[in-house]
């Protein structure tokens, strides 16, 4: 350790220690520590305090004692009583590695010479005092002309910055802010206003002046590009960036983007790069959105410059996480531009993934080359997970699914073969998405049904998560196929025993109330598949042995709305077949009781399926129609019935004396015979 320097903090009761360490075979590393002093009244013993500091701060050698005592004596004499807002420990000293933030002081334009004199001081404290004062003056645009025209000041600033910026960071920072940062922001403010004036002049001037104005605007763009680039470099320090934002820099940058939107230039690239950096903060994105940044970016397409295009796509990507911005991008024509770049630009692929979550964007993709490019990438074996995810999203649109399959199903066959051979979970999800669409594409799955069922039976309940997930997707695909000859498949694949075994797993029949310990995803997919199969009468007959199992499941899983809905759908399909409905509608049917309980469920979908099932039950059986009508009456008149029951329970027989008379009702004859007919 060598070259230790000790200075007084310019504003706080603290000393700044700078030192360098030279590890073996490693370049010298500079360090800085701030040591805060709790109290520096005249009663403090400077020598005793220096002993404490030397004991606690091993990076200060004993040979620097005299220098340390001189600085401590200076701070004590200065009498600075302001206490920093930082928390203090109970010891006499504390350490802080945070950067120094220069305090705001009162500066006067008439004292420029005094501030210049500070630059000739021996310590960094004096130099920083002058730099801080001048920086405060530069914040007022009206002072800039006088400051810039002062040659002595400019020369002094240049000399101090050249000599001291490596040794005194705070001095260099304040001079940099004074010299360049503020000037750049003010230049941008001035030039954007002048641009508006020039544009207004161009509408009413002659050809010669118009030519000169266009030349001036082109040169102005070069000046602004230099300012924006420099500010971008300065903004690597987050504290400096925040100062720029407070100067309304975001709105200025959006204005610069508007100025360069007609013809892309260096200003366009510089502005978008800075906006991209600022867009990581929500506050900045809000300002950008309010100033129409998305619309201005969309006008730049098509973009030939790869660097600019990459920055624009990344900026739009940051905006796209807000759901209200996606429709703007879709309506602004971004989809076809991204589609054409899918095979050459990974940023465009990422952007397309978010766009593909929008229904309108899915529909637009049918009229681009996106599907061809995505399928080529996937089937070549080089497709990334993002590529497959985009393909999955767009296959949720029926027209896109048809294009993926092709006229004879060749596209579907290639996807099926690749997903099954590689056990690719994302590809089998794509296949499942295609199967969800009714129409000709479902017929293309018929030759694959046995294969899918075989995988589901072998891997759907496997302990391996990867195998069980793949088997689950295969079962989900099967469950979507309404056109299959299900009676034949149920018999050939011997599905009923397997499905019963899987559905009964987890059910505890030993308890008085059947409890399903854990609903497994495969069980849900089997129930969905049964609902699809039961649409066909021949298949429903073969599934009849599972009815009792379905009732048990309905009793045990009413907290799972999705499972309940699918079970009710299965029963609804059974009820539609008259020969099977009688088994479900016996007088003591547990299913009917559950249906009545669920017809007023909080879930709207449960209520809808339940109402449809009860409607069929009422049509098939007068007894059930009467019972269902009675339950509906009780529900709709529950408040009135409750009041009647409460009044009956609160009725009290009163004694005769309560009426104030001794009435003998048993002997009272009013000439009216209850046994005699009235008519």
Automatic annotation (TrEMBL):
Any one GO CC term of this protein is:
kinesin complex
SUPFAM superfamilies in the record: ARM repeat
Q: What is a single molecular function from GO for this protein? A: kinesin binding
Record Pfam families: KAP
What is the protein named? Kinesin associated protein kap-1
């Amino acid at each position: 350790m060598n070259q230790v320097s000790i200075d007084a903090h310019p504003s706080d009761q603290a000393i700044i220690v700078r030192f360098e360490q030279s590890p073996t075979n490693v370049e010298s590393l500079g360090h800085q520590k701030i040591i805060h002093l709790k109290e520096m009244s005249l009663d403090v013993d400077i020598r005793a305090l220096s002993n404490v500091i030397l004991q606690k701060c091993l990076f200060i050698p004993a040979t620097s004692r005299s220098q340390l005592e001189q600085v401590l004596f200076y701070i004590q004499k200065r009498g600075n009583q302001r206490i920093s807002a930082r928390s203090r420990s109970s010891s006499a000293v504390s350490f802080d590695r945070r950067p120094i933030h220069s305090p705001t002081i009162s500066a006067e334009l008439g004292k420029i010479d005094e501030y210049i004199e500070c630059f000739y001081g021996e310590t960094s404290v004096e130099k920083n005092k002058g730099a801080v004062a001048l920086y405060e003056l530069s914040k007022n645009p009206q002072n800039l002309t006088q400051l810039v025209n002062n040659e002595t000041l400019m020369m002094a600033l240049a000399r101090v910055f050249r000599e001291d910026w490596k040794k005194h960071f705070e001095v260099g920072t304040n001079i940099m802010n004074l010299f360049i940062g503020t000037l750049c922001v003010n230049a941008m403010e001035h030039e954007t206003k002048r641009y508006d004036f020039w544009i207004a002049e161009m509408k009413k001037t002659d050809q010669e002046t118009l030519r000169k104005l266009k030349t001036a605007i082109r040169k102005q763009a070069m000046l602004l590009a230099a300012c924006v680039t420099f500010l971008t470099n300065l903004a690597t320090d987050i504290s400096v960036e925040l100062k720029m934002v407070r100067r309304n820099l975001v709105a200025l940058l959006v204005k610069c983007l508007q100025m360069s939107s007609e013809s892309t230039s260096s200003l366009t690239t510089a502005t978008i790069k800075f906006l991209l950096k600022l867009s990581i903060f929500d506050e900045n994105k809000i300002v950008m959105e309010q100033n129409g940044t998305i619309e201005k970016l969309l006008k730049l397409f098509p973009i030939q410059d790869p660097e600019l295009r990459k920055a624009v796509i990344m900026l739009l990507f940051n905006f796209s996480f807000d759901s209200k911005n996606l429709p703007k991008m879709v309506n602004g024509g971004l989809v076809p531009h991204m589609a054409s770049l899918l095979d050459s630009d990974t940023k465009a692929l990422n952007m397309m993934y978010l766009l593909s979550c929008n229904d309108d964007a899915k529909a637009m993709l049918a009229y681009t080359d996106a599907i061809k490019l995505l399928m080529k990438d996937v089937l070549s074996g080089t497709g990334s997970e993002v590529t497959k995810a985009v393909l999955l999203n767009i296959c949720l649109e029926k027209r896109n699914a048809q294009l993926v399959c092709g006229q004879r199903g060749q596209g579907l066959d290639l996807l099926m073969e690749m997903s099954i051979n590689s056990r690719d979970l994302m590809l089998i999800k794509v296949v499942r998405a295609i199967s969800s669409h009714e129409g000709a594409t479902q017929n293309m799955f018929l030759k694959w049904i046995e294969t899918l069922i075989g995988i589901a039976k072998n891997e759907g309940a496997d302990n391996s998560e990867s195998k069980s997930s793949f088997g689950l997707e295969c079962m989900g695909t099967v469950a979507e196929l309404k056109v299959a000859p299900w009676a034949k498949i149920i018999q050939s694949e011997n599905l009923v025993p397997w499905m019963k075994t899987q559905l009964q797993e987890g059910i505890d029949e030993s308890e008085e109330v059947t409890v399903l310990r854990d609903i497994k995803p495969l069980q849900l997919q089997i129930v969905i598949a049964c609902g699809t199969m039961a649409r066909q009468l021949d298949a429903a007959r073969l599934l009849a042995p599972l009815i009792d199992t379905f009732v048990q499941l309905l009793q045990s899983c009413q907290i799972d709305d999705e499972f309940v809905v699918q079970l009710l759908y299965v029963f609804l399909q059974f009820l539609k077949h008259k020969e099977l409905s009688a088994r479900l509608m016996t007088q003591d049917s547990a299913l009917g009781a559950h249906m009545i309980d669920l017809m007023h469920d909080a879930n709207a979908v449960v209520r809808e399926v339940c109402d449809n099932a009860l409607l069929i039950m009422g049509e098939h059986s007068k007894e059930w129609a009467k019972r269902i009508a009675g339950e509906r009456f009780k529900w709709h008149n529950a408040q009135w019935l409750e009041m009647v029951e409460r009044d009956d329970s609160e009725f009290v027989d009163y004694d005769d004396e309560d009426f104030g008379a001794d009435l003998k009702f048993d002997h009272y004859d009013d000439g009216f015979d209850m046994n005699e007919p009235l008519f």
